[in-house]
Amino acid sequence: MHKKFMDEAIKEAEISLSEGGIPIGAVLVKDDEVISRGHNRLIQNDSVILHGEMDAIENAKGLNYDDYRKCTLYTTLSPCPMCSGAVLLYNIPKVVIGDNTTLMGAEDLLKDNDVEIIVLNDSRCKELFESFVSENPGVWEHELAKVGNTTELKK
User: Fold this and answer.
1) The whole model's pTM is what?
2) HEC readout, 29-60
3) SS3 for 28?
4) Over the chain, what is the mean pLDDT?
């Protein structure tokens, strides 16, 4: 079942890439159904917060506390501290990550707050992001500089 939903998150990452953005995507799943989709829109919207996970959560309008408690967030890359904070704020109990070897987000924060983490080690997620970075030198570094982060990609 995880592959099916990660495929949908990857489609979102590919949409971002086709729009000239960073290829990171996410879907929110409830009762084995995608209820919301999102992708990174930092470049497209000149936004500092529209990461794929944030976009998917934002697009899930109309959910209540009990709905979020039944959701799983699928994301192509490990969620950053901001996105992890949104997972905690909305009480999403499970996050499925496509890849966490290229970028490591705030997984410990999620685990410390009893969020179940599943890492799929999906090479498609890693390759999509690494390909973007290598084909667009400076874009990722520019985005990191906006938040004062000088973290380099993990090799």
Assistant:
1) 0.92
2) EECCEEEEEEECCCCCCCCCCCCHHHHHHHCC
3) strand
4) 91
